[in-house]
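Anyone opening a protein record will find just a pair of labelled lines. The record below illustrates this layout.
***
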Amino acid sequence: MPTQQLPTALAETAHAFGRYLDAERGRSVHTVRAYLADVGSLLAHAATEGAGDLSDLQLGTLRRWLGAQSEAGKSRATLARHAATARAFTAWAVREELIAVDPALRLRAPKREKSLPGVLQQGQVQRLVAGAETAAAEGDPLALRDRAMLELLYATGVRVGELSGLDVDDLDPDRRTLRVIGKGNKERTVPYGLPAALAVDDWLRRGRPA
């Protein structure tokens, strides 16, 4: 049920929560959209149970909403995210004095499935780097850039998103360090070795000007 089809009080509350996430928490557009989708789903479920405003939201409502999501085939990771969104939403509502008691204090969701991230084998990494070296040797600007990126990823272990957010000023060639802005807008300094330094220098000299 879109927010415009919710009872007026519930729709206004959802929009106010979105403004809070955007203005006060500095969340990304993607994160705000995901939070609001979860909150919209929750409030739509509450409306089907007769809720007209936020004071009608009870722990049982939250549990039945999660149960309906589970029956719809949602994964444990998604259910855990839904529960986290519900707790953030009701905690905000208490702070805003929209409700007196937080109904999500005793809300629990299935624990996330633990799985190790996939990693490349050593031989795969070697073939990847060797292929980049061969292409870069021909002087193609994109190949020089790609080799520099691969060498930095391999040398530093930074996330791809962190790497793509780097600017030239974030590199200190003399110290061979990167200034990285990670999750939570936290800054850290990461060292890298000679192969990455040579690849970056080659790209700066021959690739970037082109």
